[in-house]
Amino acid sequence: MFGDFQGYTDPGLTCYCWPFQSVQVVSLAVRQLVCETDCKTKDNVTLKIKTAVQYRVNKARIKAAVFDILDPQGQIGASVDNVVRSSVPAMTLDEAYENKESLCSSIIQSVSSMMEHYGYIILNVLVTDLSPEQRVLQAMNEINAARRLREAAVERGEADKLLQVKSAEADAEAKHLSGLGVARMRKAIADGFKDSMQSMSAGGLSPQEAVHMMVTTQYLDTLKDFANNASASSIMIPHGPGFSKALEEQVRDGFNSAASAPSQAAMS
């Protein structure tokens, strides 16, 4: 009345005496103010922080909210800028991304304590966006890409190492089995020679004659196989009939050396 605050009334039918009295409508709905603050981090990266402040008028202090403050939105924005510009420069860019919750808590405490005297209640503060310069974002993406490529190279190296280890194990197992096969083959050949020697001895042949017959037979079988399977890449080494005789003498000398080895060992 006459410019003096008289009180407030809730929505409904109300009578007042104009022009001695005037009425001003005040909304108690929750509002949101979006603030954008430019600042610099500890590692000298400039970025823009977007903050959403949700507030409403305190009905119990409606006089202060209407008459004691002229620009509440500007006051809230200035307080948010002050808190952000005093907190973010103490953080690196990565810490700024990680400490969004602590930054929101600092803004709520600071803005609430200041705006409470003017009849405004700060309900919540949200940091909705942190936007560094485009070059900084590209550098961060390149760093992440390089780290992932390095991790992929390590994994690829481990996979190659595993393949080489498995290949070496397979090669060792193959050689082991091949050695067993060669040993069984030689044992079978020795058993065959033994049976042949016994059969020829039973037929009246002396050991020397039996060896001569086996060597000659083997030589002729080899020539037969060569004649049947000869190809353009085959090489024929000159030799004469005396080759089988020389081979026979070598086999006989081997048998004699093997027979004399136990007696020499017993004498020593």
UniProtKB/TrEMBL annotation:
InterPro entries: Band7/mec-2_domain, Band_7, Band_7/SPFH_dom_sf. Pfam families: Band_7. Residues 2-144 form the Band domain. Signal peptide: none annotated. It comes from the Eukaryota. This is Band 7 domain-containing protein. The lineage of its organism: Eukaryota, Sar, Alveolata, Dinophyceae, Prorocentrales.
